């Protein structure tokens, strides 16, 4: 069961990255509002972290996930603001560096949390 929970959280995170990439490419059909995007409890993963994910707050990396996920959303909002103001190169640079790093960190944490839950339930 835990595999499915963490997989869904990871899948939601991946979908968000695609949405931002489309915004930067100019291929998005939706308008991303940076004032909403900066809120880390509004996306699917954020709702999980602040909802069902609390069931895993005893795992040390839960707080780390929460913190990095909040940074991730602030970074995404900054990218949108930059892109929308015409600073595309700056937005792209931030996307390729800070944003990608935060995204990878979130992925690693979710994978580690899944492994930790699997190992503790196998014991």
CATH architecture identity: Up-down Bundle
Counting helices, strands and paired strands, the structural category is mainly alpha
- How confident is the prediction overall: mean pLDDT? 90
Percent of residues in beta strands: under 5%
Radius of gyration from the alpha-carbon trace, in angstroms: 15 Å
Shape: elongated
Ends distance: 16 Å
Q: Given the structure, what is the number of helices? A: 5
Reconstruct the topology from this structure.
Elements (H helix, E strand, L loop, with lengths): L1 H24 L8 H4 L6 H7 L10 H24 L3 H35 L1
Give me some keywords for this one:
5 helices; 123 residues; 76% helix; mainly alpha; Four Helix Bundle (Hemerythrin (Met), subunit A)
Q: Would you kindly provide a brief summary of this structure?
A:
The protein has helices at residues 2-25, 34-37, 44-50, 61-84, 88-122. It is mainly alpha-helical.
What can you tell me about this protein's structure?
The protein is mostly helical. It has a single domain, classed as Four Helix Bundle (Hemerythrin (Met), subunit A) (Up-down Bundle), CATH 1.20.120. Helix content is 76%, strand content 0%. The chain contains five helices and no strands. The chain has helices at 2-25, 34-37, 44-50, 61-84, 88-122. Helix 1 (2-25) runs antiparallel to helix 5 (88-122) and helix 4 packs antiparallel against helix 5 (88-122). The longest helix is centred in the C-terminal third of the chain and has 35 residues, at 88-122. The chain is elongated. The model has no long low-confidence stretch (mean pLDDT 90).
